[in-house]
Specification:
The structure holds 2 protein chains of 2 kinds. Chain A is an alpha/beta fold. Chain A has one domain. Chain A is built from 6 helices and 18 strands. The N and C termini of chain A lie far apart (66 Å). Chain B has 11 helices and 24 strands. Chain B starts with 20 loop residues before the first strand and ends in a 5-residue tail after the last helix. The chains are: A alpha/beta, B alpha/beta.
């Protein structure tokens, strides 16, 4: 593959895979690893994001199910050649812009980059979800880039599920761009259950068109470290964008979530709800910014982060943020941290349910709130089963004595 | 929408400069020596100042998170110490120099004194020009002096806590203050004494390019209570001035401190203040803060809840007009079981003004029963008005409950229409709405302050409608 001699990063139109790789190489060289002063890495445990220990390439195998025949599929090179104007800007400017630019560039320049472009045609309404099971294996790194284009009036549900075998250690860089045209509807579910020694950098950028409905649901059930960045460029009036996230973190794990609802023009509705359930000594970081640009009136933007702390060693950091430069708007955010309500546990115990089971039920209820937003029974059922087994596995992990029930006064019950 | 023309005329006057003592422009070891010399300080204080100067010089400006406008401060052009040098502060109003008296009369100080206040310490540039404490408090053992007097006459009380709540190296501006501090109030309330009347201080910057660096330390012993109020104003000058104060509060077990500030610096002042309280078991510290003036205010009152069941609270109102940036917030550090904290912040942005909330709530591991509630609400009046909210909440452990909520909105058109239908002008309706928005918090201020606040807000609102 040839790398162009001169690369002008200011006027970026990426027209081929080699150009994408060259731009990534350039960006990798210009950027630096995060330090304590970086506001985009505030509260993150900076020891975790190192790429060392994953020098070799890992294998990524993709198994698809669902109405993929109805969808137009292009390899990355062809997609960029034909539709560079659709995706180029998003790849260059938005992916990785919330802090993981260098990690993303490392992935995109790697020899081990795979990915596809999926185009759902105009007016096409798919009746079943498009499922892509991505399995990583081996010890090393891999990168995945998915470009999704849902054309005018179309509707689709896409589920990308990332997994690896228990013994494997992989570092995955996963970038996704979802462009949705006017009047289209798309639900994108991104779940991962990587092994306990794996790491994931997951960058997603959505661009909803006018009068479109876009929903993204992120489910984190594995990996030692996840850096998740979700951004939405909300510049077309009438769009409705919902961002959901659920993370269940266990011993030694960290979930680092950064989101951006960028209201570039008026008349858009966005809503974000992220829930984290933290077991053992896990930690989570949530930084969500709602930015309303000058003149973006009639904006409705909401954001909510709920943290359920299930052990005395767990830690939740929340930084919900607002930057508002227009006045005819309604924007609010909220964040809570708490424990399982002892009254709810008492209610269940009074009906003969053992305490452990009661706590499991309450935690499952907390998680199911997000699963129920997918809007597709088949996916919800499968994810519920996965969440249940994950909760069972997390219960069996060594926990501190602080997980005992406490009464209303905070005393051990 | 035209920006509001702020009526600063009440504070916009100055007297010819006639200072006996002047440290000159710029900051260096000689400035520190000059200040220490003039005050006749013990050597430990001079060393404290020099160490602080080194720390100040070694720290960078925090522009990686704070406003770039900080770079407009020219440290070498500022004068760090100015005084009339007429001995210590006068004890009665009659002893105060005439021109100083005139300044304070225009600002209404004597009226306040005649009211229900216990004592007034008014600061004119660097030294307290006038101080008067009611005899009953002298009998109770309440000490209310300026910082120099506190450290020289009562070291056994104040030295213990001086620089402990806010260490010199906490940030660049606490280091600056520790190097050149002058003036400010040192207060000690003995155990069980509940000071019925609020103690008050008033600060004034007169000279051009003058910085003000007062240092306040309030120690309230077991079971005692005190309310302290401060208001500030300065005349308008072409070049920027700097106000960098440090306020340390210590509430011993079951003590209660309420610290009320109304800040109305003119729009050329950089107001960078570090305020923190240490609350022991069962104690309560409340910061009630109103920021209306200045070019850039950076102030995050904090409470470290060190003892069981301690309580911290920050009530904050900020109003930012064109050319102003109110960057305020709160820091609540929980360090004991069953501590609770509450933050309520309301901000109003008018014209091109920008108001920012920065908060930190920290609950470490192995504690139980801690609670925090934070509400920040912002009101945007014009289409170019700006507001930001940047809270950071860290909770470890599963025995706590925190909740944070923030919202941004504008004055409801329905509300305005309703009022106009009943005969109010649009300006009056806006004024009423805005006052209603902050009404809950304004009621926390003592009555005469709340009246003045309402008036100040009305003034700011004039001509901003549309």
């Amino acid at each position: 593959m040839t790398i162009p001699a001169v690369l002008d990063l200011d006027s970026v139109v990426i027209r081929s895979l080699p150009e994408l790789r060259a731009a990534a190489e350039e960006r990798f060289n210009l950027a630096s690893w995060p330090t304590r002063k970086d506001q985009t890495w505030r509260f993150a445990d900076l020891k975790r994001n190192s790429i060392e220990g994953f020098p070799a390439p890992a294998r990524l195998a993709v198994e698809k199910s669902g109405p993929w025949d109805a969808v137009s599929r292009l390899d990355l090179d062809t997609a960029l050649e034909r539709h560079g104007d659709v995706f180029g800007r998003a790849i260059e400017e938005s992916l990785g812009s919330l802090g993981s630019a260098r990690h993303l560039a490392w992935g995109l320049k790697s020899e081990n980059l795979t990915g596809e472009c999926w185009i759902v045609g105009e007016g096409q309404k798919l009746d079943a979800p498009l499922v892509a099971n991505v399995r990583a294996s081996g010890q090393g790194h891999a990168a995945l880039l998915s470009l999704v284009w849902v054309k005018r009036g179309a509707s689709a549900i896409i589920w990308e599920d990332l997994g690896s075998a228990v013994g494997d250690s992989v570092f995955i860089v996963n970038g996704t761009v979802v462009v949705v045209e006017d009047g289209a509807e798309v639900t994108f579910v991104g779940s991962q259950e990587l092994s306990q020694t794996s790491k994931l950098v997951n960058c997603l950028h959505v661009v909803p068109g006018a009068q479109s409905k876009v929903r993204d649901v992120r489910i984190n059930l594995g990996a030692q470290w996840v850096r998740q960045e979700v951004s939405a460029a909300l510049g077309q009036a009438g769009a409705d964008c919902e961002l959901f996230g659920l993370s269940l973190a266990g011993a030694g794990e960290e979930v680092d979530q950064r989101t951006l609802q960028a209201h570039e023009a008026g008349g858009v509705h966005s809503n974000l709800l992220y829930k984290n359930a933290l077991f053992a000594n896990s930690r989570s970081v949530f930084s969500g910014l709602i930015r309303v640009d000058h003149g973006a009136h009639q904006t409705d933007a909401f954001q909510s982060c709920r943290n359920l702390l299930l052990s005395d060693e767990a830690e939740a950091n929340s930084m919900p943020g607002l930057e508002i430069n227009a006045d005819q708007v309604r924007c609010s955010h909220g964040s809570t941290c708490g424990q399982i309500d002892p009254e709810e546990v008492f209610y269940l115990r009074a009906r003969g349910i053992r305490e452990e089971a009661a706590r499991h039920l309450v935690t499952f209820g907390f998680a199911y709130d997000i699963l129920s937003r997918v809007g597709n029974e088949a996916i919800e059922e499968q994810l519920s089963a996965r969440v249940e087994s994950r909760l069972f596995a997390l219960r069996e992990q060594p926990v501190e004595s602080g997980t005992q029930a406490v009464n209303g006064d905070g005393e051990l019950a | 929408m035209d920006a509001v023309l702020i009526d600063q005329s009440q504070g916009n006057f100055t007297y010819p400069e006639d200072y006996a003592l002047d440290a000159g422009r710029g900051l260096g070891p000689k400035t520190v020596d000059y200040i220490s010399e003039v005050k006749g300080e013990d050597s430990w204080i001079r060393e404290f100042r020099h160490r602080a100067l080194d720390i100040f010089e070694s720290k960078p400006m925090p522009t990686h998170w704070a406003s770039d406008d900080l770079n407009a401060i020219k440290f070498q052009d500022i004068r760090y110490y100015l005084s009339k040098g007429k001995g210590g502060p006068s004890r009665s109003w009659d002893d105060v120099p005439d021109d100083v008296k005139r300044t304070f009369e225009r600002l209404g100080i004597p009226e306040r004194e005649r009211g229900f206040l216990a004592g007034v310490e008014a600061q004119f540039d660097s030294e307290a020009a006038y101080s008067n404490i009611k005899e009953e408090f002298d009998k109770l053992g309440v000490i209310f002096v300026n910082s120099s007097e506190g450290l020289s006459k009562h070291p056994e009380i104040f030295r213990k806590w001086f620089g402990k709540v806010i260490p010199t190296g906490d940030n660049k501006f606490s280091a600056l203050n520790s190097a050149v501090f002058s003036g400010g109030s040192f207060i000690y309330v003995p155990p069980g004494v509940k000071v019925k009347h609020p103690l008050q201080a008033y600060f004034r910057i007169n000279a051009e390019q003058f910085g003000q660096f007062e240092r306040t330390l309030i120690i309230v012993d077991e079971g005692a209570e005190v309310m302290y109020m401060e208001g500030c104003t300065a005349p308008k000058f072409e070049t920027a001035t700097l106000h960098s104060a440090v306020v340390e509060l210590v509430a011993m077990p079951h003590a209660k401190i309420q610290y009320i500030t109304v800040q109305n610096w003119s729009s050329n002042v950089f107001n960078l203040v570090t305020k923190r309280g240490l609350a022991h078991e069962g104690a309560e510290i409340r910061w009630i803060d109103c920021n209306i003036g200045s070019r850039l205010t950076m102030k995050y009152p904090g409470v470290i809840m060190k003892g069981r069941k301690a309580r911290g609270e920050v009530i904050s109102i900020a109003l930012a007009n064109t050319g102003q940036h109110q960057d305020t917030g709160a820091k609540m550090i929980h360090a004991a079981d069953e501590t609770t904290s509450n933050i309520v912040s309301k901000s109003i942005s008018i014209g091109e003004g920008r108001s920012t909330y920065r908060g930190q709530v920290h609950i470490p591991r192995h504690l139980k029963g801690c609670k925090n509630n934070t509400e920040c609400d912002a009101l945007l009046i014009n289409s170019q008005s700006r507001t930001d909210t940047y809270p950071a909440i860290t909770v470890r452990g599963n025995r706590h409950a925190t909740q944070h909520e923030a919202s941004v909105s504008q004055v409801s058109e329905d509300q305005i229409f309703y009022m106009r239908q009943r005969g109010l002008t649009e300006a009056a309706a806006m004024s009423l709405s805005v006052n209603g928005f902050v009404n809950d918090l304004v009621r926390e201020f003592p009555m005469e302050y709340s009246v003045e606040l309402k008036r100040l807000i009305d003034l700011e609102m004039e001509d901003s409608v549309g």
